[in-house]
Amino acid sequence: MKILMLTWEYPPRVVGGISRVVYDLSHRLIKDGHDVTVVTYRDGDTPYYEDDKGVKVYRVDNYMINPNNLIDWVMQLNFNMVAKANQIIQEQGQFDVIHAHDWLVAYAAKTLKNSYNIPIVATIHATEAGRNSGIHDETQRYINDTEWMLTYEATEVIVNSNFMKGELQRLFGLPFEKINVVANGVNLNKFTGMDRDYSFRRRYAMDNEKIILFMGRLVYEKGIQHLIAAMPKVLAGYHDAKLVIAGRGGMLDELRAQADALGISNKVYFAGYMNGKDVERMYKAADISVFPSTYEPFGIVALEGMLAERPIVVSDAGGLGEIVEHRETGMKSYCGNPNSIADSILELLYNPELCANIVKKAKQKVKNDYNWAKIAQDTHFTYQKAICETMAEKQRKEMEQEKNQKTKNAKTAEKGLSNIIAFKKRQAYA
Question: What is this structure's pTM?
Answer without folding.
Answer: 0.82
